[in-house]
Design goal:
- It contains 23 helices and 29 strands.
- With 762 residues, it is of the alpha/beta class.
- It folds into four domains: 87 residues, Alpha-Beta Plaits; 183 residues, DHBP synthase (Alpha-Beta Complex); 128 residues, Nucleotidyltransferase, domain 5, CATH 3.30.420; 208 residues, Nucleotidyltransferase, domain 5, CATH 3.30.420.
- Strands 6, 7, 8, 9, 10, 11, 12, 13, 14, 15 and 16 form an eleven-stranded mixed β-sheet that branches. Strands 26-27-23-22-21-28-29 form a seven-stranded mixed β-sheet, with helices on both faces.
- The longest helix has 27 residues.
- The protein is globular, with a radius of gyration of 28 Å.
- The termini are far apart.
- Bound molecules: zinc ion (2 copies) and fe (iii) ion.
- One zinc ion binds next to helix 4.
- The site of fe (iii) ion (FE) has 7 residues, from helix 13 and strand 21.
Length: 762
């Protein structure tokens, strides 16, 4: 018989995901001999047997990979026959540097779920059931390699039964590091607001009873605590909002299953796939009008953030009761999520009535990820639990670089070889807690990538905390990257393209090299440089930061720009400005540009237009006005407003939006339907994108358009932009895995710094 021996080396996420038992079973089933072994760089398997069987084995490996594995590369080699008689798992080779990727956390798998609700199973209703296909990973890891001893499970000794599973290659729990059972594993406790434990035989049932009676619970999850109330209980939702100082920002809910999700939202096939994926992000879905849950969960917007249970505890809580549970990150406004038991008791004091916690420590803060679907693709708006620390494969290999991100929604990124490792969502760096999390995350990223980069990248903004942090870290070289350049390159990296592109960077604000706030930018960009081809017309922001919170100020500024001195009459007609004194003051501010910085940000234009349309004069969170304007625009068949593109020699093109504002004012005066006005505004922007991309193609010959920046979270702009530009013959690239908002900035910064270093530019 024609015998054959082949070696395969697998790279990527291949350890801690049941890869060895998978190969073992496959080899044994096919009667092949050889071995499988964990190595520092991945997993190596050698099989020998009849040639056709070995070939069939290779095919099946690729087709039947364990669900949580993620192979980045396979190498194979033909070897001489060694006449092995059996197939075995041989001890790990731990020599050398670890290059194995740590797996992200994964939702409870169907097998474990079946056991959870099987009264004859020894883990019946055990809230910490898991296996090699599911359970905590990153969030319990202290350092690499990923072995139980390096996780927060180290303090739980396996009982004989768990130990048997752990040692048996044929078992689903072979080397499942968080393996546990009621005998040997972690346990729940229920505490009251004073930190005293509540006497109960069944903490889950008591927690359910408390939720049913309208109490606010802090519940320890995978990557942090949630604050939880019954979503159908209007009073409970309002109490939670009041205590959390979260007036109107939408709250996410968790429902038992897809059927329950369908009762509160409209769900496409693709959105269903997103919801049931092992990553279990919060999916932004269109609310239906069932009114099964409290209106206060997501007031004023059309979308609702929904997720399905992803820990055994969630499944138990939602088993019989509740139409939905509000599950929002446990924190005060703008602070990072709580992870420690004592931390929760302190930081959530005054918010939570009870605490459902346990003694398995969370070692890595990891918020829920958030995704939406547009133009047939899933788009992550926040990439955290379930995705991190899975690296993004890059088109080429780079020297090691650490990028520190921006200021809001921030992340960090380490580029190493041909991978980009992006940190969990850190969030805003304006509070001491946020800054602590920043340092915590930095240490984590270095640990899991086993690097200490000497090249740093950060934003151009001198006052960002991350920029200051870059200066304080000892680095050979610090490369400051313009914000919108970073946006465009993050999208290029994700799409594995390089060379020159047309970049449309549309967001709220980013520091320009000229010291003004940029934000509606048309860039000719590459990995190493950019040119500002054009931008949206600058707006005066009367009061600066204040204008962001009080969009009526921006509306006034838009009117003044469009009408000159007669703006006051129109502002009066629309009741835009609360009092006459304020109008005088504002006029002087606009006139003398006192305390009134300039911004070309599209986000600010959205705010102003929303205020003009009478949507709201104040916002309680950034982007609120824009979200409501999007929600209002229920049609896409509205005529765009006029605009102009102005060109002065030696200066970037300027998109003049005064025409659009005047046309809109005419519509408002004529009492035209506001849904149509909001739609017309969106269509105007899509027209502007197409016109500017056309100008850029004419002048450069480039045909690839890259869309990035927070404004592309707006589904009408994203889908409309992609549609129109594709019709105009452009190759259009947008974000999917990497957030289009500032969560993607660190990736762009890292690639730019790495590419500049590689090309010897600095
Ligand atoms: Zn499982
Ligand atoms: Zn056990
Ligand atoms: Fe940005």
């Amino acid at each position: 018989m024609n015998l054959k021996r082949v070696q395969y080396r697998f790279y990527g996420v291949v350890q801690g995901v049941g890869f060895r038992p998978f190969l073992y079973r496959l080899a044994v089933q096919n009667g092949l001999a050889g071995f499988v072994q964990n190595r520092p760089e991945g997993v190596t398997v050698e099989v020998e047997g009849p040639a056709p069987v070995v070939d069939a084995f290779a095919l099946r490996v690729r087709e039947e990979l364990p669900p949580l594995s993620n192979i980045t590369r396979i190498e194979s080699a033909m070897l001489d026959i060694r006449n092995d008689q059996v197939f075995q798992i041989i001890p790990s080779d731990d020599q050398g540097r670890a290059d194995v990727h740590i797996p992200p956390d994964a939702a409870t798998c169907p097998d474990c779920l079946a056991e959870l609700f099987d009264p004859s199973n020894r883990r019946y209703r055990y809230p910490f059931i898991n296996c090699t296909n599911c359970g905590p990973r990153l969030t319990i890891i202290n350092t690499v390699p990923y072995d139980r001893a390096n996780t927060s499970m180290a303090c739980f000794d396996l009982c004989p039964e768990c130990s048997k599973e752990y040692e048996n290659p044929a078992d689903r729990r072979f080397h499942a590091e968080p393996n546990a059972c009621p005998v040997c594993g972690p346990h729940l406790t229920l505490l009251n607001r004073d930190g005293a434990s509540v006497t109960t035989d069944d903490p889950v049932q008591t927690a359910i009873d408390l939720l049913l009676s309208g109490q606010v619970l802090a519940i320890k999850g995978l990557g942090g605590f949630h604050l939880c109330v019954d979503a159908a209980n209007d009073e409970a939702v309002r109490i939670l909002r009041a205590r959390k100082y979260r007036e109107e920002k939408p709250l996410a809910v968790m429902v038992r299953d897809i059927a329950q999700a369908r009762q509160i939202a409209v769900i496409s096939q693709e959105e269903e796939t997103m919801l049931i994926s092992p990553q279990r992000p919060i999916a932004l879905l269109k609310k239906n009008d069932s009114r099964r849950i409290s209106e206060s969960v997501a007031p004023g917007v059309t979308n609702l953030g929904i997720m399905l249970p992803y820990t055994p505890l969630h499944h138990l809580l939602l088993e019989k009761h509740f139409k939905a549970l509000v599950m929002t990150s446990a924190n005060q406004v703008d602070e990072p999520i709580c992870i420690g038991n004592r931390e929760a008791l302190t930081r959530l004091s005054g918010i939570a009535d009870y605490f459902l916690m346990h003694n398995r420590d969370i070692l890595v803060r990891c918020d829920d990820s958030i995704a939406f679907s547009a133009s047939g693709k899933t788009r992550l708006m926040r990439r955290s639990r379930g995705f991190v620390p899975q690296p993004l494969p890059l088109k080429q290999s780079y020297t090691t670089v650490l990028a520190l991100g921006a200021e809001l929604k921030t992340t960090q990124c380490i580029v190493k070889n041909n991978f980009a490792f992006i940190s969990p969502h850190i969030g805003d760096l304006e509070t001491p807690q946020g800054r602590d999390f920043f340092s915590e995350s930095l240490a984590l990223m270095k640990r899991i990538t086993q690097t200490d980069p000497s090249i740093l990248a950060c934003d151009l903004h001198p006052a960002y905390f991350s920029t200051q942090a870059a200066r304080e870290l000892k680095a050979e070289r610090i490369i400051q990257v313009q914000h919108h350049h970073a946006h465009i390159v993050s999208c290029m990296a994700e799409n594995q393209i390089d060379g020159d592109v047309i970049g449309l960077a549309m967001d709220g604000t980013g520091y320009g090299p000229d010291g003004t706030a940029w934000g509606g930018e048309f860039l000719i960009a590459s990995e190493t440089s950019f040119q500002r081809f054009g931008h949206l017309q600058y707006l005066v922001l009367p009061g600066g930061e204040k204008a962001v919170r009080e969009p009526w100020r921006i509306a006034a500024s838009l009117l003044k720009s469009a009408y000159g001195p007669s703006w006051r009459e129109i502002a009066g007609r629309f009741n835009l400005i609360p009092e006459k004194v304020q109008m005088d003051l504002l006029d002087r501010m606009l006139e003398g540009k006192i305390a009134s910085p300039l911004s070309s940000g599209l986000g600010r234009l959205f705010d102003g237009v929303a205020a003009l349309a009478g949507l709201r004069h104040r916002v309680s969170f950034e982007g609120q006005a824009a979200m409501e304007l999007e929600a209002l625009a229920t049609t896409t068949s509205a005529p765009p407003y006029p605009f102009d593109i102005l060109r002065k020699d030696g200066e970037p093109y300027r998109v003049d939006t005064d025409f659009a504002i005047r046309a809109m004012v005419d519509d408002l005066t004529a009492g035209r339907d506001k849904a149509m006005i909001a739609a017309s505004f969106h269509m105007t922007l899509i027209d502007i994108f197409a016109a500017m991309a056309g100008e850029m193609r004419k002048s450069t010959g480039l045909n690839r358009v890259v869309l990035s920046g927070g404004c592309f979270q707006n589904r009408i702009l994203l889908e409309g932009g992609i549609d129109r530009l594709t019709k105009d013959g452009f190759d259009v690239y947008s974000h999917s895995l990497i957030p289009t908002n500032d969560g993607g900035i660190s990736l762009g910064q890292a690639i730019i710094a790495a590419a500049m270093t590689k090309n010897g530019i600095i």
